[in-house]
Structure formats: structure tokens, C-alpha cells
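Course exercise 7: structure representation. Students receive a sequence record and must write out the corresponding structure in C-alpha cell form. The form below is the worked example handed out in class, using Single-stranded-DNA-specific exonuclease RecJ (769 residues). Read each field label carefully; the graders check that inputs and outputs are placed in the correct fields and that the protein name is recorded exactly as given.

STUDENT ID: A-19
EXERCISE PROTEIN: Single-stranded-DNA-specific exonuclease RecJ
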Amino acid sequence: MLESQMSWNFTYKQSEVEELDLIDQLLRNRGLTEENSIKQFLNPQLADIHQPKLLAGLVESKQRIEQAIEQGESILVFGDYDADGVTATTILVEALNELGAMCDYYIPNRFTEGYGPNSEAFRQAKNQGFSLIITVDTGIAAFEAAETAKELGLDLIITDHHEVQEELPVAHAIVHPKVSDDYPFKELAGVGVAFKLAHFLLGYFPKQFLDLVAIGTIADLVPLIDENRILVKHGLDHLSKTDRPGLRALKEVASINGEVDEQHVGFALAPRLNAVGRLESAYPAVQLLLTRDPEEAQSLATEINLINQERQEIVSQIAEEAITIVEQTKDINHSVIIVAKEGWNEGVLGIVASKLVRTYQRPAICLTLKSDEGIAKGSGRSIAAFDLFENGMEIHEQMIRFGGHAQAIGLTTEIDQVDQLRRSFNQLASQKLKPEDFKEQLEVELSLNIEQLSLETVNQINQLSPFGMANPKPYFHLTGQPQELKQIGAKKNHLKFALEQDNQKLSSIAFGLGDYLPRISPNDELEVVGELQINEWNGTRSLQLLVKDLQVKDRQLFDYRGSKFWHNQLQHLNDQDYLCLSFQKQLLETNLKVTPLDQLDLENLEQVTDLVLIDLPNELNELSQILSKIKPNNIYTCYNLDGQKDWTAFPSRDDFKWFYGFLMKRKKYNHQLEQKQVANYRGWSHEKIEFILNVFYELKFVKIDNEVFSLNDSVEKQQLTESNFYQKGLRQKEKQDLLYYSNYQQLKTWLMEQIEQDARIKEEEVDGL
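STUDENT ANSWER:
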């Protein structure tokens, strides 16, 4: 057995699936069954974009902005330092510039100002002559800054998409889908809201901004459905052929050529734009997107790429330190992990929290301690079953600042509140979560047979792209025997194999699961869940399964019979509840703790998951009794016949008859002088001849005098099976045939029968048999 890392949620009934083709089933899984909705999903059209005028606050915003332009007022676009924020900032600045506005932009410094609008920044804006501030991707929780703006006589327009708190800040206008009753789609990203404002201000649909909208929307992990899907689908097309020098340079340093997809954005472009604001000021990111100078773009892209590399190193170091802390404090971080340390870079703590969530399957909050200010500040990420924002709101009085989404939050608290905050979050999670909630959920869309799959299958699936939140790349369930198992990668931390089913093979790769190699038997059925993709290598395109998770439901047999190197395959057992059993008290070179049979306590072995057999039992029933009691998940047969009698040449009845007839003809047989001749003549071993003679002697068929055997004159007729010596030999032959010379399936069948025999007996007793 091999347990899956995640909980597999099968979202379909196989009986229903058989009536539909692949695409129809995937569409049904997404709630798309009507012809019109399917057509709109598969062919997203810009004509289906919702009218921006439906957003509350846009009319008031446009009137105030037009007034500012007419009167020559200075407008400040106040953005955020992530990819969503910098793309939103760029869009609004370009739109205002096109309208002839006197405008500039401001991105707060994560380290000196923190998240969102702040009073000091607004005071500086007032002193610099700005009279109108427009926020993008931020501001819905900026209560103090909004009050400051009112006191200063600054008009404030808030455009945002983050979760709305119990009340709204005071502002000239608020543009937010979730406070707009008439707006049909509530899940726009910050850049999507800024795009709506730009569309409304310009009076035409600004296609030139679609590349930026795609980046910000994908980066902010909002649902890729409805108009987000339309904007991203067309935005990726624009991004593939963008004429923005900054984006062209960014694609170059990220080694992106040709068509750009959501993966390129999510794993290459967005992380680089995010990195700038995580480590330094986010201004270079906005400058990169705004510049029309190719040389400046190249210089900025190179700088941003170096910052991203530095960010990766910092994340790796902090994650290592955070894991060390978690390992030492599991008792207090049992349901929600909260770790804090002086000197951690707050800009990357969200990424570190995500790594902790994946590692421990727990909500995680990472905080940097600022002793000079007396505060702890950082970010949190969550599991699907725990709404971090909602639960945080229940204890928000313990925090100085708090905001975010269900799965991601940012917070500031006093240092002496960290322990109480940890207790509060853990108490909430303990009350609301069940044990199964702490296992990552994996939605499985279909079970497929390998023979159904081809390169065209992937092309069909890609009709559903772009994939993302609420439209995930589909994961499929497949079964088969894993062949050609091997570890790959510089650190041997990835697993590659061919999944074989009915003589059809599917190349498969499981990143990060290299240590599973010795845990998977190539002879047992492996279940995998993964996504199908096309692998291109040296001009050849082939189908490949990218494995997300795997499991073996049945007990496994690892067959190392006769191998001299079996102990090299069992190093992983030091992490398991194993029993390494010796029936013969053998002393072997192994790192495993060996338990002799006479020291075995069968009453206290229920926790054993893995059983290692390093030699053969004296009798089959010894092993049978142990298996029925322990019921291990996995069995490792590591024995050989060294030092033991080989019973493959056990005498047949005809062998006994021939030797009896031989004695009748010869009258006498001198074993010491004649055994070699008989052995050569019959092709027998000396042991075989001795066994026959011992059986005859026990049954009184022969008598012996000085190594000379002769038949008894009066022989009482008896069956060979009446000889104890014969019976013992027969049992030894059966043991060797079954445990050593049998094929894999024969051995496994017998072992599993012994494990299940108690259950069968109890079943029969219940049924009255």
C-alpha cells in the first residue's frame, strides 16, 4: 500500500461519463450544458464583455476626473506593489495621459509604508499639489488614509477588488464589483477594475491594454470565468505579439518565445514583476511597462530578472528556517502554523507561507519581527477548507492591520500578541476543521484508459484554456503497472516511469516524488492522477502524463528473492513502522533492526506497516501465523537459499519405485561405495538418494548393516506418506516451491491469503457457516 498525499475527489459518475465524449464531460463538470453557454466558453468574444457603466461609482469618477483635466489639476494614481497592482497602475496612467491629464503614479514601499494607502503618503501628495487621488487594486480597507484625505481636502476615488470589510471608507467614489449591485460579475482583479475605468473614461474599448489585463488577472489568482476568461483569452493573444518594449524585454529574459499562455504568465512573467516590490520599490516594474524606449526596457528587464533571482534565494533560505521552527513547535502549531523571526524579509513571506501550506497541509502565517517598532508583520496562506480572511475577521481586534482574501491575508500585530494570535487561530481551526480537511483536495475530472489517449486528446483539452482558478487544468485518473521506474534530476528528486495498461504505455513524470521509487512495486497496480501534456524533445512530440499524486490501494509485495543487494532498496523503511524478521537468527549486514523469531511478541505488532523477511521460515505455518496477526501493508521478500538444502529434486513416487526395484534386483546396496554410480546413472544428487534410504528405513522397508542396505524379508505394506521423514521433506519442498521458486503472482496470492484468513474465518462465523 502507498497512501496518496491528497484527497482525491472524483467529480463524476463513470456510468454518466460513458455516454459523453471527453470535451462534453469536461464542460459538464464546469456546469456548462446549454449550447449557448458552451459556445461562449469555447469561443470567448470581446462583444460579451459587460458594460463598464454598470459598475457603481464610475459615473461620479468620470465626472471628477474630467473636471480635474479641464481645470489642470494634478491626479495621482495610487497603486499596489504586486503584478496586479503595477499592471493596473500602468493602465490608468496611460489612459489618463491619453486624455491629457496631468498625472503621476505612486507605489508605496512595502518595507517603510506597508500595504495600501497611508496618511503620510496622502499628506505628501497634498504638499506636492495633487488634488485628486485614484487608487487601483487597493484602498477598500484604507479607513485612516481616507479620513486623512477628507481632512486635507483631497478627493479620493477608490478602485479595488479585495474583500470588503464591515464598512466602507469615506471617498468621493468607490468602484468595486462587490459593492455594485447591478454589476453581474463580482470577481474582477484589480487590473480588471482599472481597465473598466479606463474603458469608461476613454469612451472606446482599449484593446491596447489587454496584454496588461491578462498578466494582472492571472497573477492575482481570480476565477478565470465569465469576463475574466474573455479578457485573459484575448489578452494572451495580445501578449504574444505585444509591441510594448518592456513586455518584449521581459519575455526575452524569461526565455519566452512564440505563443504566450497562462503558464508563462503565472510562472515566468508575473513572478518577475512581483519580485521587484517584494525586495525593493516596485517603481522599476511600472517603469518597465510604461517605457517606449527599447534600450531602457532591456536595462530594466535585466535588473528585474536579477532581483527575481535574489528573491528566489531569499525565499529558499527563509523557508528552510521556517520549516526548522515548525518541526520544533508542532505542539502549538497543530492546526494553523504561525512562525515568526527577526530579520525575515516581509516581501517574500507570502511565498514562504505557501510553501509551508504545501509541506504541512495547514494554513500558515509567516511574520517578521520588528523589535524596534514592537510589531510583527507578514502574510498568510490557507487550505481550501479554512477561510483565512473570514476567520481572521473574528479575531481582528488582535491585529493592528488586517486584509486579504479567503486564501491569502496580510496582517500586522504587536509582537506580544503573536502567541495569542496563534492560540486564537488554532482554536478556530480546531473547532471548524475535520481531520480530512487538512489533506489537500485534488479534483479528478475523469478516469481514462491509456488506449483512449493521443496527441489529439491534449489538443481537445486545450480548447478549455486558459486554465486557472474556477477553470483548472483537468486532472485525470489512470491505472496500470509502473514500468522502467527511475529517479531523474540533479538531486534524483523526480520520478519517471511508463504506466502500462493492456500492453499500452504512457510516459509519466512525477516532479518531487523521487523518493517514492523504493515504495512502488513494478508488479502491482499503481493509480495516478495527473494532467496530460505534449512533451517536445529533439523535434519529436509525444504524449506525457504530469503526475500530481499517486497511490497503491492494495498491499504490495517487493520481490528481492535471491538478490545480494536488497538492503540498498530498503533505506526508506527507517521512516516506517517496520519489522525485519529472521527465522534462522541470521547475522546480516543491514541498517535495519533485525528481530529473531524467538523474540517476536505477536500481541504488540499491530502498528507494523512493513514486513521484511530476510530468510525462510522453518515451516510455512510459522509465517502464516505471523501474517494473519500483523497484516502488513507491504512485504519485502529478501531471502535466498544460502546454507539451506535445496528441495527442488524431491523424489517422485517413480523414483522411490525405481530404487525399491533396484534393491530387489541387487539384494544388497553399499551406500558408501555405490552411491556415486547410482547418482551418475540416474542424474540424482547424493542428498536425494539419502532421503529415499531414510524414508525406506523409517518405514522398515530396508535394514542396514555397516553401510550396506538390503530389503527386509517381511515388509508390511505402507504408504510413503506414513513416513514422518517423508512428510517433513514434503513440507520443506512445498515451502521452497511456494516461497522461493514460485513466480511473483503465485507468491503474492499465497501471502495475501494468509493475511486475510482471520477475516475470512470471522466472516464465516457471522454467516453461520
